[in-house]
């Protein structure tokens, strides 16, 4: 049985917490470097509009050749991740990614079946939509979580459904189809994405494999140029970025 099938069968009955503290524990790290000059984006583009899907199935925003490479492992159902998105995502992108010296790659760490469903829906449009859709989940975190809590009792038998119906049923019960439809992903489009159960479960399997390989057991966890950090708040992370040589766009 794959990791994702175990998630589907085992996590629906577990209560979902609205905690803002980090969802686990991880190790610390730090880095330092010289101040870096901005790097120009290609003609007619801004770095905050440039997105590519990496070999790790992360969504890298900004200059793919940026000397400062920031990776975040995040769960779409984690309160601490929502807190970072609400306080740090905008300055990170507008003040640092925009300079071309910092890239920001977002990777999903899957904690439960709702998390897995949301991760697939965030991928259900163009790559450029992934970051904005993930941010919308986190900005509306309390509302999204409230509907998820209410959906758990409706999905006691979801494991008995055919695989191509399970994630559609989960998304419908939790209000995800309406949520994403209001943000440009039609119900038909979302249902088609979720009906491909193998692509959904592959996200969970990659999440588990990567987390095990890197020793990541907390969200959000940030990795800077290959080094796992203990910092999770924007204030602390900005300090680490500046120690690595990043400077905000307005400086």
UniProtKB/TrEMBL annotation:
Pfam families: Thioredoxin_4 (PF13462). Residues 58-242 form the Thioredoxin-like fold domain. Residues 1-22 form the signal peptide. Keywords: Signal. This is Thioredoxin domain-containing protein. It comes from Aurantiacibacter rhizosphaerae.
